[in-house]
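Per your request, structure below.
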């Protein structure tokens, strides 16, 4: 849900996802003179609570010496704020207040308020479930003292899952009888509880059939061992053709009365690390037509065809759009492998088509196909969220050059290794993931704040291999603002998380605490032709 308000010279927009509310406001340069920052007050109408939200940065003169401080006394020196403590399906009012005076004598001046309701993950035709995706975080450190999830047990796993595991179990659990069926296409398929749920569905009489990758020993051996341990080898087919490629899908088709009715897809491998570790999304589509396409694709793959045979059949099932063809309204699917890189070029065309805002994740670096689009001058902003800048020096150099442009803003995964500055606690990685330690999602948001947003999400890493060689699937959702709002708020939850940690990784170990400015000098980057000024106008909806 998104809503806006304007009062007392302040423009305010709120974008509510499931667990995040993104607030953005604007005040003219002239009117903001003398403002020391903005306080944010939240009223939870669902639970009957009202209080000022808290932040980490404080004025040195009035430093309370605590980890978090009220924004009423230590306001936001910026024009955006995300509430990461919001709960799904709650109704909130947010009041943003300009604070003037001095750090020791702050008083409230101009203010504006909006009322929003956060989304439920189950939003009708779609369900969107993001895991926490940040095991190396301040909150995990506070709650669990950096102990591994296996040592903490259920509380840590529930917190890290954030509903993703429970939703996956619920989807599988819908196959309750012989009238139901499940068709699974998996890359990494070794998490016992998921395999057990599929085995239980089969024992209830459901028609369960599983296709998993069995090419390279690193994946094939744990997959086969897990399947054999649960005694479900008879339900499975191994994908062995094209040994240089990978069967990279992570989807399940649900059938009732032999008809496909829904599909679970996204970026989440059926592993402990996929569900509880690096960032992932599970996306359910309840649309018989979309589910039918996935079933047909599964049946193609289940024959274990070689690339020469498979590619033309995949292209017949979901033809590659023309270079300048916009996606259709509603939800469609695109599958791989294909002949040539036309589909990858089409994704790059979507990037170039953005008119105001572009958000993209890169789990394994940026493919060269997207570089020209990110090099092109842009009146809005393009955001990139990277697991890493890449392993090759030329790839790192490209990312470095692109991020110097005022229309590109990048964040690269990292964590806080020391605690000698500010109030930040040292963090530790969970050890659940060897590859893509931070960002594993694969999605693209084109103009997500518009009335006609485009969300591209699925298993493909926006790479040549994912287009021409691997078994992959992507959803294209056009015109659904609710889906776009969920993806957008989750994107910036992680973008902000890692942008700070990337900066902190370069800060000297003996760096002094970063205090708030005691005057209005903090405002200067937020006006003129700067990335911060573009962000202020774009997210708040202000004209200037």
């Amino acid at each position: 849900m998104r809503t806006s308000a304007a009062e007392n010279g302040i423009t305010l927009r709120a974008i509510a996802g499931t667990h995040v509310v993104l607030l953005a406001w604007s005040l003219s340069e002239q009117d903001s003179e003398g403002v020391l920052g903005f306080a944010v007050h939240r009223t939870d109408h669902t639970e009957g609570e009202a209080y000022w939200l808290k932040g980490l940065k404080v004025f040195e003169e009035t430093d309370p010496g605590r980890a978090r401080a009220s924004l009423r006394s230590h306001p936001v020196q910026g024009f955006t704020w995300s509430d990461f403590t919001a709960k799904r399906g709650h109704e909130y009012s947010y009041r943003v207040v300009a604070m003037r005076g001095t750090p020791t004598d702050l008083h409230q001046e101009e203010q504006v308020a909006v009322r929003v309701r956060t989304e439920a993950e189950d939003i009708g035709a779609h369900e969107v479930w993001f895991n926490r995706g940040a095991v190396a975080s301040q909150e995990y450190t506070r709650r669990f003292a950096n102990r591994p999830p296996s040592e903490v047990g259920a509380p840590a796993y529930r917190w890290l899952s954030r509903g993703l595991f429970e939703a996956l179990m619920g989807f599988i659990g819908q196959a309750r009888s012989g009238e139901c069926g499940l068709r699974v296409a998996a890359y990494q398929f070794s998490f016992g509880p998921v395999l057990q749920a599929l085995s239980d569905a089969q024992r209830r009489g459901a028609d369960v059939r599983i296709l998993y990758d069995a090419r390279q020993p690193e994946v094939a051996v744990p997959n086969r061992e897990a399947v054999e341990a649960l005694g479900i080898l008879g339900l499975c087919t191994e994908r062995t053709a094209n040994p240089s490629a990978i069967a990279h899908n992570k989807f399940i088709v649900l059938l009732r009365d032999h008809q496909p009715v829904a599909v679970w897809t996204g970026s989440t491998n059926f592993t402990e690390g996929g569900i509880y570790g690096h960032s992932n999304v599970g996306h359910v589509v309840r649309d018989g037509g979309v589910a039918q396409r996935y079933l047909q694709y599964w049946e193609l793959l289940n024959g274990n065809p070689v690339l020469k045979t498979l590619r033309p059949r995949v292209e017949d099932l979901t033809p590659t759009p023309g270079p300048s063809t916009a996606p259709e309204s509603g939800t469609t699917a695109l599958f791989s492998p294909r002949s040539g890189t036309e589909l990858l070029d089409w994704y790059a065309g979507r990037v170039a088509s953005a008119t105001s805002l572009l958000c993209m994740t890169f789990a394994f670096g940026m493919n060269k196909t997207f570089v020209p689009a990110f090099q092109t001058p842009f009146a809005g902003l393009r955001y990139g969220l990277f697991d890493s800048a890449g392993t090759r020096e030329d790839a790192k150099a490209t990312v470095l050059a692109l991020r110097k442009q005022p229309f590109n803003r990048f964040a690269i995964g990292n964590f806080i290794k020391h605690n000698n500055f500010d109030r930040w606690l040292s963090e530790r990685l969970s050890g659940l993931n060897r590859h893509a330690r931070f960002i594993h999602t694969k999605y693209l948001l084109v103009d997500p704040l518009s009335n006609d947003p485009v969300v591209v999400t699925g298993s493909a890493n926006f790479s040549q291999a994912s287009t021409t060689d691997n078994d992959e699937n992507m959803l294209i959702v056009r015109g659904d603002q609710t889906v776009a709002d969920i993806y957008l708020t989750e994107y910036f939850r992680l973008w902000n998380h890692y942008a700070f940690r990337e900066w902190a990784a370069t800060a000297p170990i003996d760096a002094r605490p970063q205090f708030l400015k005691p005057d209005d000098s903090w405002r200067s980057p937020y006006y003129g032709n700067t990335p911060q000024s573009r962000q202020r106008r774009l997210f708040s909806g202000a004209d200037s």
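The first helix runs from residue 138 to 144.

Regards,
D.
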